[in-house]
Structure formats: structure tokens, C-alpha cells
What does this fold into?
Amino acid sequence: MDRCPNCRARLTDGQETCQRCGMVLTDLQALETAVARLDRAAARAMLAGDRARADRLLKQRQHLKHDPLTHQLLLFMARLH
It folds into this structure.
């Protein structure tokens, strides 16, 4: 995350609190890490041809953070079944 989601101030790596507005960022950073982990795992599952696992991981990812690309990937995966 390069900007505070509350006030849009620039952030430095590892910053736990926004220096401008005081927003605590640790939970958001953990969420972003989890989303990135699910993205990588889903991509690996798709490349391996494991559609069921990819679908499950994409749904978990979408549950954590809604994203139009993930939505489109889920639609694509549904057409493959």
C-alpha cells in the first residue's frame, strides 16, 4: 500500500500508522498480504490445471477484497466447468 486509504498521504514501507491522520494500517496491510497470497496460489492452481482449487481460492480472494478482474476470472472458471 503506497497511500493511506483514509487521507491519501504517501506511506513508506513498513509504516504501521499514517503520519498525517493517525490511521492504524497493520490490519489493512495484513489483508493485502493475504489477498496477494491467494492471488499467487490461484494462479499456480490455474497453471497446474486444478480448476476446483483455483475456483475456491478465487472465491476466498473475492470475499476478502472485491475486484473486477477476480470477478471476471470466476466467470471464466465457471464456463470451463
About this structure: Residues 26-47 form the longest helix (22 residues).
